[in-house]
Amino acid sequence: MTRALDREIISTTQQKIANMAREAPSMVLLTLAHHIDLMWLEEAYRRTRKDGAVGVDGVTAEAYEERLHENLSDLLERFKSGRYRAPPVRRVHIPKDGTKKTRPIGIPTLEDKILQRAVLMVLEPAYEQDFLDCSYGFRPGRSAHQALEALWKGLMAIGGGWVIDLDIQDFFGSMERTHLNAFLDQRVRDGVIRRVLGKWMHAGVMEDGAISYPERGSPQGGVISPLASNVYLHHVLDTWFEHEVKPRLRGRAFLVRFAEDATLAFEREDDARRVLEVLPKRLERFGLTLHPDKTRLVDFRSPSRADKEPRSQPERSFDLLGFTHYWGRSRKGRWVVQRKTAKTRFSRALRQIGHWCRRNRHRPVAEQQQALSRKLRGHDAYYGITGNARALARFRHEVRRLWRKWLNRRSRATRLNWAAFARLVQHYPLPPARVVHSIYAT
């Protein structure tokens, strides 16, 4: 009962911050840190993931929880007095989609995650009043599927048009902190909050036992990093496009952004080419660079409007948020924008299934069937969108093939041909493909 009351108090406080920020868009907030008390930190701890990898101090959630009240009280005192020292984040590298390349991820300490969550809880209500509708990534009540829906509706409205498939090279490692501080100054100047934000930006990175202190960028993996990236691109890209670019265009245009991934669509080719020409200069002003190979202009006009010259699908399609967007015929024969699972995501998901089947091939068949069913339902929860049924069905087929392959390697004595495997699947069926996100649902 007490915990529910605490959450209600925190929710009410957040609503007050949101109302104040919404009613005074140009007001600078000078006092926010006083909202963060022991109750606030306890709620931040509850919202913090407990099963993640440990940071540089090696402290686990189990160990921290043994003296939770004392630890949070001490954290609060250090935060308010300025004695809090942000430890370096532990850097690991994870593979990128469909390539041998990796991308760095920072792992903060548990205490860092708790305090970052607490600060996020007080900053988010204010910035949510400033962010534009075109931004979807890492915002409460917004999702990748909402971004995909907005993109689909926008493309259908302008008949596809011309698309700038935008890719910012090493965005998190390129943000200039002087610009970020200037952007933050426009809304939040609470001394305690800004001091701890600065400490997180300058905390350093530990990799292979060595600590480095990059002069630019924000460590990926921290709870506060997505908000910092949204603040940065809100000023660099979103408001610039909405207030400076669109009024100068001759045709319709719109932007959809999910974190650092963005797509700009234009009704007219000349508008798209003019923006593509000035876009590198705009980003360079703030320390950012367009990826020279991944950023491209796509003629995405509906085939009914486009030139009659034959073009390959890669030339007239683009990827965003794990989906390839292309034109296809509807059941009624009309040209519509369709989406299918991107090749890199499809291959990555299959590799993960294959690795799991290999590691768990000696488990009971019923146990394997339950685990694979959960994985397939999870796959559908993201990729199960209208028009993607063929890719979902093909994914099922490939999963069954992998399952049979590794069941056959359980023993040399027993071999499953396809007929025998079909009988096994009748007893241990995998769930059928399911469209979870329909464009026709209200």
From TrEMBL:
Gene designation: ltrA
Entry GO MF terms: RNA-directed DNA polymerase activity
Keyword Transferase belongs to the record: yes
Keyword annotations: Nucleotidyltransferase, RNA-directed DNA polymerase, Transferase
InterPro entries: DNA/RNA_pol_sf (IPR043502), Group_II_RT_mat (IPR030931), GrpII_Intron_Splice-Mob/Def (IPR051083), RT_dom (IPR000477)
Leader peptide range in chain numbering: none
Family to which this protein belongs: Belongs to the bacterial reverse transcriptase family.
Domain of life where this protein originates: Bacteria
Pfam families (UniProt xref): RVT_1
Name the UniProt record assigns to this protein: Group II intron reverse transcriptase/maturase
Coiled coil: none
Domain Reverse transcriptase, first and last residues per copy: 75-325
